[in-house]
């Protein structure tokens, strides 16, 4: 399964960490970088600012940071590094908002390109039958939302948190409660502008340079740097009806989730989460959610049971409030939740979409945002979800005091299979996200080791029980594990790497390929 002449792309050995690269940088490399003719600039003394990511577990400073002002700055940098060839170890990581979890946006002793510097030309909106927005790859989704809302428009598919960049989420998938209907964010892109690993600037779409287009979407930054993206839009609602209901029976919960995502006329957003050992949670909701029947709700006692919360949203404009109430009432009547646990609220669309930012502010104020985040995201086929839930939520995880546990199904039939994203091979699969924070505990130590072991137990269980699970935002130590992640799509992935980034310069922090010397 080797690519002829490309031994670095097909070794069965562990992929070296950037730390293990030979320290043979000639001392004139920094001056060769400075000599580049750029509209932006290169800095060396602030590399500590991009040495970590949100996961906060690795500290690997680059040699330099490129603050690009134009696409040609990025292209010049790439061409320069290609030209240096085997005389340098330099790799390049495009850095979006640095919200990766395991060093994926780092380039140890390489060059980090700060994509947020590339925000001009500005966000451009095109109205019409198929409206879209043209944005820089370094643009934050929250800025795109604010701008498109001025025209009554909005992207269709989201992540739960909007302070992430277009290039960062399109390199993964971008999954949230709208993905069952619209597919992930990578399915809602009309066109991309890419700087490949050879420094070429290429415009691509489903019709033009389509192989590069689909390679880059979900491509973990391996094939090129997304400098611009054209994202499809729809009319934006002003308000959302936001509803939470509880289940104590996992089968009833997942049956209802699957029922909702299989209907044509349904909610606009379907997610869910698991509540283990958290009797206080219902009380917390009272501040922002109203119980449908407060007397009944006050009688509900969870008795320490594991509960499953279905979270759904219906978009509406104030003049459509009556029909919205009728439609949500009908949909809710088809579900089997615990009747006393219906909570709802009505909030502006932007407030709903930007909800995690409110949690971020609270955590930052307590110094709990910049802690290690040993997150684990899994895509689990429908046929395995019951077995997974039974073992993981009852036996492996004993509480979720350290962070949310999300769980919701999506329809693969709405997802484009030509992208680089790897998913389970069933039409319906679940996203399960274990999102703990390793906060210092009462003994002053943090729980990182414990949480990492817990993740490992979950992964080992999935493997031993043959659940055919795939990691989302994947992270592996060896190329063998990457091969197994990609399965029969590995060959194509490696061939495309060879075509678009033959020296393996891009996104070294993913640890899939090692730079050729
Ligand atoms: P970075 O971390 O900076 O980069 C990620 C990878 O993409 C790196 O390998 C980097 O080199 C590469 N890259 C960055 N920019 C470009 C570019 N322009 N061109 C090519 N490659 C590039 N994900 C979801 O799908 N759904 C969610 O609901 C969700 N919620 C999240 C909530 C929080 C609080 C956090 C921290 C993360 C969440 N994520 C979610 C994960 C998130 O989508 C990924 O971590 C994403 O990579 C972060 O975007 P970023 O802009 O910070 O990218």
How is this structure best described in words?
This protein is α+β, with helices and mostly antiparallel strands and about 525 residues long. The chain folds into 3 domains: about 5-115 and about 475-510, Uridine Diphospho-n-acetylenolpyruvylglucosamine Reductase, domain 2; about 125-235, Uridine Diphospho-n-acetylenolpyruvylglucosamine Reductase, domain 3 (2-Layer Sandwich), CATH 3.30.465.10; about 240-470, FAD-linked oxidases, C-terminal domain (Vanillyl-alcohol Oxidase, Chain A, domain 3), CATH 3.40.462. About 30% of the residues lie in helices and about 20% in strands. It is built from 16 helices and 19 strands. The protein has helices at about 30-35, 70-85, 140-150, 165-170, 180, 210-215, 250-260, 280-285, 295-300, 320-335, 350-355, 355-365, 380-395, 450-465, 480-485, 490-500, and strands at about 40-45, 65, 90-95, 110-115, 125, 130-135, 155, 190-195, 200-205, 225-235, 240-245, 270-275, 290, 305-315, 345-350, 375-380, 405-410, 430-435, 470. Strands 5, 6, 7, 8, 9 and 10 form a 6-stranded antiparallel beta sheet that branches. It has a 5-stranded antiparallel beta sheet with strand order 12-14-11-15-13. Strand 5 (about 125) and strand 6 form a beta hairpin. Helix 13 (about 380-395) packs antiparallel against helix 14 (about 450-465). The chain is globular, with a radius of gyration of 23 Å. Mean pLDDT is about 90; it is low at about 1-25. Flavin-adenine dinucleotide (FAD) binds near residues 165, 168, 220 and 226. Flavin-adenine dinucleotide binds near residues 105, 160, 161 and 167.
């Amino acid at each position: 399964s080797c690519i002829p002449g490309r031994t670095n792309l097909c070794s069965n050995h562990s992929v070296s960490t950037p730390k293990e690269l030979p320290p043979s940088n000639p001392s004139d490399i920094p001056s060769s970088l400075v000599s580049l003719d750029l509209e932006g600039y290169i800095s060396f003394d602030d590399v500590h600012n991009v040495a970590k990511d949100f996961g906060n577990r690795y500290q690997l400073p680059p040699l330099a940071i490129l603050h690009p002002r134009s696409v040609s700055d990025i292209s010049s940098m790439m061409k320069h590094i290609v030209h240096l060839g085997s005389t340098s170890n330099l790799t390049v990581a495009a850095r979006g908002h640095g919200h990766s979890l395991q060093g994926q946006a780092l380039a140890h002793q390489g060059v980090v390109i700060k994509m947020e510097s590339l925000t001009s030309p500005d966000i451009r909106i095109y109205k019409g039958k198929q409206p879209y927005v043209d944005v820089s790859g370094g643009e934050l989704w929250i800025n795109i939302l604010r701008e498109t809302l001025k025209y009554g428009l909005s992207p269709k598919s989201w992540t739960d948190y909007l302070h992430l960049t277009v290039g960062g989420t399109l390199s993964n998938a971008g999954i949230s409660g709208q993905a069952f209907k619209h597919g992930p964010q990578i399915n809602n892109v009309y066109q991309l502008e890419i700087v490949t690993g050879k420094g070429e600037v290429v415009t691509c779409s489903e019709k033009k340079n389509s192989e590069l287009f689909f390679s880059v979407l979900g491509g973990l930054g391996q094939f090129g740097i997304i400098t611009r993206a054209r994202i499809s839009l729809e009319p934006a609602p002003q308000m959302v009806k936001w509803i939470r209901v509880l289940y104590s029976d996992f089968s009833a919960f997942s049956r209802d989730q699957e029922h909702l995502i299989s209907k044509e006329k349904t909610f606009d957003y379907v997610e869910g989460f698991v509540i283990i050992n958290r009797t206080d949670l219902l009380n917390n909701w009272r501040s922002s959610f109203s119980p449908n029947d407060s007397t009944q709700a006050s009688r509900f006692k969870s008795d320490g049971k594991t509960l499953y919360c279905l979270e759904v949203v219906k978009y509406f404009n104030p003049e459509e409030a009556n029909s919205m109430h009728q439609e949500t009432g009908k949909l809710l009547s088809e579900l089997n939740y615990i009747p006393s646990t219906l909570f709802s609220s009505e909030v502006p669309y932007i407030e709903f979409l930007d909800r995690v930012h409110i949690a971020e502010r609270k955590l930052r104020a307590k110094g709990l945002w910049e802690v290690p985040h040993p997150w684990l995201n899994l895509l689990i086929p429908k046929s395995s979800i019951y077995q997974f839930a039974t073992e993981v939520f009852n036996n492996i995880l004993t509480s979720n005091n350290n962070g949310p546990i999300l769980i919701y199904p999506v329809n693969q039939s709405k997802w484009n299979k030509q992208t680089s994203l790897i998913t389970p091979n069933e039409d319906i699969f679940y996203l399960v996200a274990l999102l703990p924070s390793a906060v210092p505990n009462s003994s002053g130590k943090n729980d990182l080791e414990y949480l990492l072991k817990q993740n490992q137990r979950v992964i080992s269980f999935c493997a031993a029980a043959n659940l055919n699970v795939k990691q989302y935002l994947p992270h592996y130590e060896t190329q063998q594990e990457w091969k197994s992640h990609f399965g029969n799509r590995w060959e194509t992935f490696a061939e495309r790497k060879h075509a678009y980034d033959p020296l393996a310069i891009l996104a070294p922090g993913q640890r899939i390929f090692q730079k050729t010397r």
